[in-house]
What we know:
The chain is mainly α and 320 residues long. The chain contains 17 helices and no strands. The protein folds into two domains: 21-73, no CATH class; 78-313, MetI-like fold (Orthogonal Bundle). Helix 8 (121-132) crosses helix 11 (177-205). The protein starts with a helix and ends in a 7-residue tail after the last helix. The model is unreliable at 1-14 (pLDDT under 50).
Amino acid sequence: MAQVQPELDTGVEVRTSQRSPFRRFLQQIDLQMMVIPGILLIIIFSYIPMYGVLMAFQDYSIFKGFAASPWVGLKHFEMFFNSPEFVSVMRNTLVISLLKLCIGFPAPIILALMLNEVRHMLFKRVVQTITYLPHFMSWVIVAGIVMSLLSTDNGSVNILLENLNLVDEPINFLSIPKLFWSILVTTNVWKEIGFGSIVYMAAIAGIDPHMYEAASMDGASKFKQIYLITLPSIMPVVIIFMILAIGNLLNAGFEDILLLGVNPVLREVSDVIETYVYRIGIQNSRYSYATAVGLFKAVISVGLLTIANYLARRSGNSLW
């Protein structure tokens, strides 16, 4: 009997491994029904529209369609690389993206670390609610608030500066190119810092409290506990979000830049790939050219994501 039992177990394992995928699907039908809507959503709105990428290699005409429009190869890519706006658009995209990455990425982590040290629960919840709220407001509302604050006509910032005798007359902040990047990045941080800290707060909550007790008994200060316990414990989450942020490095933003950079004077510092594609493709009806620019950005983004994931894999944390 001692020799028969392993044979029976082995037979069960074989039958389980040879079970058809369709049968396994039916056994998990309740879970699969929850996944199917998401898969259909991705297929309909993400994969099927990829057929439109063909426009980048055609002189596309809405009257001729994809089948009859002439093929031109890499003509539109060459036009973009040789255009006078190429340098300024790429410079603005990279600078704004790097500023958002270097300032906006660590901001939620710092806020989460600070909130974790707050022991007054009522104050902690009030701060969390106040910092979360801007995320749920549209960029139209946020841009309106910023324009009102910086307005030369009864704007709060100008009134404060005048009362402090720092300026003699109101400053039109949103017409000064050298201030636009600072205003844009500050507004982005203010809008997203609270919502971005939720994941890090959840990761910190999963840390074993006995580790802090042991470190405290060994004489470690709060800063040492953060440096030696909290940060290493949440590092896998930080690395994953860093990979995603690097993959989106060329996504400098669209709504925020379009609404805050509405002044034509700011175009030299506010025109990024997204706004350039919108202006050229939608407003000027150059669909093939705009598609080529968008495809160029997508290819570079995939490359950056792959490189970032490869480097992160060495630390044991990666997306794939």
